[in-house]
Amino acid sequence: MTKVLGLDVGSKTIGIAISDALGWTAQGLTTIHWQEPDYKSVEDTFKQLIDEHTIEKVVIGLPKNMDGSIGFRGEASQDFAKFIEDTFSKEVIFWDERLTTMAAEKVLLEADMSRAKRKKVIDKMAAVMILQGYLDSQP
């Protein structure tokens, strides 16, 4: 089976997670820094990730407002998805990411991690939660 990439797309960082080959578990891979909306700045990184891990599908966290509407950040995630689809011809699935960053923060706080360390891994952890949520929903 091919692997699935999970992304938590922010304006300055993108948290990245990857599934195991069976599609059961999500592991945090890395966080990359970028300046939205400069897609060219991350194109080589994503090409390498997709090729190296034989990625067929990309799950992108879709931040929605609590009423379910799509705001500015949601639109930015949709724009990033279009970049992935157009550039790499990969299927993109949106996953409702409401509360994933808060949930990731809670897990890291419970692990008694310092604020500086939390800041470094929070996006990657959110990507894991987005991807794991998607994987858990699959039959």
Short summary:
It is found in: Cytoplasm. With 139 residues, this protein is α/β, with parallel strands linked by helices.
Please report which band the strand proportion falls in: under 5%, 5-15%, 15-25%, 25-35%, 35-45% or over 45%. Answer: 25-35%
Largest sheet: 5 strands, mixed
| Overall number of strands | 5
Spatial gap, N to C terminus:
14 Å
What's the helix-strand series?
A: EEEHEHEHH
Mean pLDDT rating: 92
CATH class membership: Alpha Beta
- Percent range of helical residues: 40-55%
- The chain-level structural class is alpha/beta
Total domain modules: 1
What do we call the CATH topology? Nucleotidyltransferase, domain 5
For the largest sheet, list the strands in their spatial order. 3-2-1-4-5
List the total number of helices. 4
pLDDT < 50 stretches: none
Described by the principal axes of the CA atoms, the overall outline is globular
CA-atom Rg in angstroms: 14 Å
CATH architecture: 2-Layer Sandwich
In CATH, what is the homologous superfamily? Answer: YqgF/RNase H-like domain
EC number: 3.1.-.-
Family: Belongs to the YqgF HJR family.
GO biological process, one term: rRNA 5'-end processing
Domain YqgF/RNase H-like: 2-104
What does this structure look like?
The protein is α/β, with parallel strands linked by helices. It has one domain (3-137): Nucleotidyltransferase, domain 5, CATH 3.30.420.140. The protein is built from 4 helices and 5 strands, in the order E-E-E-H-E-H-E-H-H. The chain has helices at 40-52, 72-88, 100-110, 115-137; strands spanning 3-9, 13-19, 26-33, 55-62, 91-96. It has a 5-stranded mixed β-sheet, sandwiched between helices. The two termini are 14 Å apart. The mean pLDDT is 92. It is an enzyme of class 3 (hydrolase). Its main location: cytoplasm. It comes from Gracilibacillus salitolerans. One of its GO terms (biological process) is rRNA 5'-end processing. It is found in: Cytoplasm.
